[in-house]
Amino acid sequence: MPQTLTTELEAVNYMLRAIGERPVSNLDSIPSITKAIMARDTLRDTSREVQERGWSFNSEEQYPLSPDVSTNEISIPPNALRCDPTDQSLDCVNRGPKLYNRTTHSYSFDAVVSVNIVFYLTWDEIPESARKYIKIKAARVFQKQAIGAPDQASLTEEDEKLAFRDFLDSESCADAPNFLNNIPALNRRVNPVK
Predict the structure, then answer these.
(1) Are 126 and 8 in contact (CB under 8 A)?
(2) Angle separating helix axes 128-147 and 8-18, nearest 10 degrees
(3) DSSP 107
């Protein structure tokens, strides 16, 4: 049987095993108040938290957002975690599902606005190195919440750090020409926006 990428079900079952719970056979028919639901929600929250930093796999620069022809409003993609105009002279912010122009005090735009955007991707869209890191981080968080006693936890911060290191190694290969400039989360730390 060929190996496949880690599925969301496998990640949830990994988390359940970390607290001594039995695995589930699927995520679609589990009762609404169970440890499996809590594990799945923790996994998704952790994925969102990790992805919000922006990585090579979920970030795009100079992404064009066009105004609607009838309203001149610019809708932000529903899975956008963050979008910032690339033109620093534009004073725009996200307000709900639309881009808001703070200079004109309106949602109206006359032209395409290019943005640096970070997308929230579903589990199936993220690379394996990110899945591994998110799975281990989520399992450690879930284990801490479910058990509450740190001395009984089998997953440690060291496990998480090793998974994060592997993830960063994978990120450096994704945009090899210039490691620090091509990983948005690291670039913001090294070159903060003023």
Answers:
(1) no
(2) 30
(3) S
